[in-house]
Amino acid sequence: MKYTSTRDNTVEINSSEAILQGISKDGGLFVPKHLPQIEDLELLIGKNYGEIAYLVMSEFLTDFSEELLKDSIRKAYDEKFDREDMVALEKVGDAYFLELYHGPTSAFKDMALSILPYLLKESIGINGIEEEIIILTATSGDTGKAALEGFSDVPGIKIVVFYPKDGVSEVQKMQMTTQEGENTFVVAIDGNFDDAQNGVKEIFNDVKFKEELKDRGYVFSSANSINIGRLIPQIVYYFYSYIDLLKTGEIKAGEKINLAVPTGNFGNILAGFYAKNMGLPVDKLICASNENNVLRDFLKEKRYDIKRDLILTSSPSMDILVSSNLERLLSFLSHGDDKLVKEKMNSLNNDKVYNVDLDLDEFYGEYSNEDEIEETIKDLYEKYNYLVDPHTAVAYNVYEKYKTISGDGNKTIIASTASPFKFGKKVAQSIGIEVEGKDEFEILEAIQEKTGIEIPKNIDELKDKEIIHKNTSQKDQMKEIVNIFLNEGETHV
Ligand SMILES: *Cc1c(COP(=O)(O)O)cnc(C)c1O
Prior knowledge:
The chain has helices spanning 15-21, 49-60, 66-76, 110-113, 116-126, 142-151, 170-177, 193-205, 207-215, 228-247, 267-277, 294-301, 326-333, 338-351, 370-384, 390-406, 424-430, 440-451, 457-460, 478-488, and strands at 3-5, 8-13, 30-32, 88-92, 95-99, 132-138, 157-164, 184-190, 218-222, 257-262, 282-289, 303-305, 353-355, 363-367, 411-416, 471-474. By secondary structure, it is α/β, with parallel strands linked by helices. Strands 4-5-15-10-11-14 form a six-stranded mixed beta sheet, with helices on both faces. Strands 9-6-7-8-16 form a five-stranded parallel beta sheet, with helices on both faces. The model has no long low-confidence stretch (mean pLDDT 96). It binds pyridoxal-5'-phosphate. Residues 107-109, 142, 225, 262-268, 317-318, 391, 417-418 line the site of pyridoxal-5'-phosphate.
């Protein structure tokens, strides 16, 4: 399997090179030249998560030996997860909640970031890279911690994480600022997620800076979902959950299901779209946004328009206007038209808007406001004794809207992306817990007491941890900060 750039079809590289580079020189994203087909789903029945991961991922990572890939999967998906099968599929009402947050940092990012460090390490070996790898990461809260956890103290790799100072939850912030590991570097930037992501992309595209660093023995890579090594592991759980529904008799062989996914950077839902185009019987892809509803407008109006302010919401991991992976969707739907993609991305950059003439009917886009999020968390708890986080609430609320207007009776999987304990304040308020005068951990304990659901260990332990990272940066100083970190080998500046 070869990979090319969404903005230049003459690029042709192997999967390990795509993972190492993170983003293409031309600013485009790496995409597989075609999607592999998994025709006989029956073959997956009876297989565990790791086995299905191997069957799916080996189709994409063809320059990894069977042994290397199996080894990476085994090391990634182990007792760091609090479920033997990594994920849970819970039937609640008429929907199926695919709980993707049972990993070490209690968010779905663990599904890919547990394995990415191993894939990267093997890619270094496969390509004989001698430089040290610097992972640059922009985070809306969850990627940062999951990447830090995955890359902490991995030899030959340093990791730098930029998060928006006021744009993450209390628990998300603590998870990052208490991160141990000599090779970790965490910086709060004076800006929002788009600023962080932009800054990282600018560093990637700064040829001179990259050459300078190369001379000093460093190369950059990315842990964001712009890295194809993030997306491939995310395809796995859509296959896994379909097979689970089949196994338990909830669906018949070949029956089409819908996927409802809370979206910011369009990564998780793109993985579902790829699964569909690999042969998984999926009908509608329900793209759920919060008040930053740029994707909802795009899917309805075929016009991507970011001329608006970014709003800070209770689902901070979706507080994004420039949704990186949409570029991969444009590339796929235009049959790899690199000129078209380049033109659209240039207009986005220069005019903050572009129009497309593509068939987007297999998507349904809608959004939830703060009241709806609160109402949804409350309803699910009161009706079904089931507790969800604000992101998952967005997905369920938009699924309900879709059901009402379409009458579509397909079984639907709701991608459940984070533990409710990562967003304690909003969850507590929604289920009638007084938060006034309580600190974060008192809030979490009150939720535990009221619901009988245990606080995940990794979150509970934060209260005894020391804050290690206190760095801050203006949004236009990210490059200098990276430089200082590399020069001094300092984790604090
Ligand atoms: C990252 C994240 C999302 C959005 O996922 P994308 O695939 O980047 O759009 C949704 N919910 C949570 C909890 C997340 O951490």
